[in-house]
């Protein structure tokens, strides 16, 4: 007979069934712009059927168990199941730490003062230039595995602690190595314009202007060549720039992003962390995939977010990490019909935090969004912030089987509770992740 369909007596065998979740958050229906943010698509007593790396079906437990069978099942009673978190802004690979600077900051020195005195990003650059590829991979691996344990199944990872082509490439290679060697999916970003390198801070070196020309006209073309020769099977990395007083001006940022765009790279920007220089408007006008930080964003740039597709990525761990009072004005971005995402900004200076659960706890309190809105910002909208909303960030048939089980009876416990890990199981590309004692 043509078009034979399995009947009710003929369940299809799949690789994994997760069933009986108290709440299953599907986040179905695509990116959540403006006031749609927080549409969780909750299924009470929910189940998922998984074949290989993909989701086959999502429904209530009874119809799923009637249609599918599996030798491997997870009883999710007493848990909330949701898509794995997507962390769309991290500086995953670096060497050393800045604990001494943290001590100076709590004693009163500001982040920018420390940076002007030769500390800050440049001090991590000194350590990172000396580190071997193997050391960078090893320290990055422990952070990546901690992220996974805290529920992040896909993350963006930036270079930016080299500030010379060779070291930036070493960082990029360590990100690609970690992408191959760990279960987490890593999306690379080239952030050669993260700070002014020490050798461009001396008299006669031309400073930020000369370095931004070098990034735009030498590093980015060299990066494209390197990529074609060494990583042509992967999509091009993002190009990002730190548009800020003391880092790169709006014009210098434009020069770098325009060159990146001409070469075909997708774009991101660090904008409005301390000063609103116009970086967000620039990002929207250039079709950047995301604009990140957005604490001091001028009203016209918030409006621009509502008229474009650039995702606004808030990084609440950063003002918290710096003990600052101002956070991204999420309500204004939502009211302007913008697309809001959140990320950790994991980095050694302002926010050494691998946990999207912590970002959610901070976003709910200091950006005044609900747990439901924060969850959407940390999953489907975060996926959009790295151009992956059609592959991850929701639980829908056809999507990658990336999901987490939380030991909580109701999704509103996310954000409400903080400082402990609520994740009890991580499923990545259809596999239940087994953690080792060293993955802590
Ligand atoms: O996103 N703002 C620039 N970069 C990082 C900080 C990096 C560092 O201090 O090492 C950030 O906050
Ligand atoms: Fe950052």
Overall average residue pLDDT: 96
The count of strands amounts to: 18
Portion in beta strands = 15-25%
How widely separated are the two ends?
Answer: 55 Å
Proportion of residues in helical segments: 25-40%
Q: Which runs of at least 5 residues are low in confidence (pLDDT < 50)?
A: none
Major sheet description: 8 strands, mixed
The general outline is: globular
Brief summary of the model shown:
This protein starts with 11 loop residues before the first strand and ends in an 8-residue tail after the last strand. It is 36% helix and 21% strand.
Defining key terms:
eight-stranded mixed beta sheet; eight-stranded parallel beta sheet; 16 helices; 18 strands; binds N-(iminomethyl)-L-glutamic acid; binds fe (iii) ion
Molecular structure report:
The protein has 440 residues and is α/β, with parallel strands linked by helices. The protein is built from 16 helices and 18 strands. Strands 2, 3, 4, 6, 7, 16, 17 and 18 form an 8-stranded mixed sheet that branches. It has an 8-stranded parallel sheet with strand order 8-9-10-11-12-13-14-15. A two-stranded parallel ribbon has the order 1-5. Helix 7 runs parallel beside helix 8 and helix 9 runs parallel beside helix 10. The longest helix has 24 residues. The site of fe (iii) ion has 5 residues, from loops. The site of fe (iii) ion (FE) has 5 residues, from loops.
């Amino acid at each position: 007979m043509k078009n034979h369909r399995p009947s009710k007596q003929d369940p299809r065998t799949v690789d994994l069934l997760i069933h009986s979740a108290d709440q299953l958050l599907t986040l179905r229906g695509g990116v959540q712009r403006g006031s749609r943010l927080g549409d969780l698509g909750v299924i009470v007593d929910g189940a998922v059927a998984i074949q290989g790396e993909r989701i086959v079906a999502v429904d209530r437990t009874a119809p799923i168990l009637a249609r599918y069978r599996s030798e491997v099942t997870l009883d999710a009673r007493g848990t909330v199941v949701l898509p794995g978190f997507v962390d769309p802004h991290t500086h995953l690979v670096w060497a050393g730490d800045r604990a001494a600077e943290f001590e100076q900051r709590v004693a009163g020195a500001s982040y920018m003062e420390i940076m002007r005195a030769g500390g800050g990003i440049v001090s991590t650059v000194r350590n990172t230039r000396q580190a071997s590829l193997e050391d960078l991979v090893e320290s990055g691996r422990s952070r990546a595995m901690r992220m996974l344990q805290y529920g992040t199944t896909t993350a963006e990872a930036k270079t930016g602690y080299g500030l010379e082509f060779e070291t930036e490439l070493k960082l990029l290679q360590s990100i690609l190595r970690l992408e191959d060697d760990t279960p987490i999916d890593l999306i690379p970003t080239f952030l050669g314009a993260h700070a002014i390198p020490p050798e461009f801070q001396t008299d006669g070196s031309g400073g930020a202007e000369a370095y931004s020309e070098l990034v735009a006209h030498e590093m980015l073309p060299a990066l494209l060549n390197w990529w074609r020769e060494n990583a042509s099977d992967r999509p091009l990395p993002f190009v990002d720039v730190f548009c800020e007083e003391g880092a790169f001006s709006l014009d210098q940022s434009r020069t770098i992003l325009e060159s990146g765009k001409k070469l075909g790279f997708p774009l991101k920007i660090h904008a409005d962390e301390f000063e609103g220089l116009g970086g967000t408007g620039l990002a929207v006008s250039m079709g950047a995939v995301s604009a990140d930080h957005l604490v001091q964003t001028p009203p016209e740039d918030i409006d621009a977010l509502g008229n474009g597709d650039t995702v606004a990525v808030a990084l609440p761990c950063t003002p918290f990490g710096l003990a600052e009072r101002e956070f991204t004005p999420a309500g204004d971005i939502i009211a302007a019909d913008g697309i809001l995402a959140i990320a950790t900004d994991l980095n050694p200076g302002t926010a050494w935090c691998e946990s999207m659960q912590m970002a959610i706890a901070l976003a709910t309190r200091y950006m005044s969004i609900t747990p439901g809105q924060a969850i959407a910002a940390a999953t489907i909208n975060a996926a959009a912030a790295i151009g992956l909303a059609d592959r991850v960030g929701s639980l829908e048939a056809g999507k990658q089987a990336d999901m987490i089980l939380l030991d909580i009876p109701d999704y509103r416990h996310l954000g409400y509770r903080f400082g402990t890990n609520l994740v009890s199981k991580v499923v990545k590309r259809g596999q239940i992740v087994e953690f080792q004692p060293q993955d802590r």
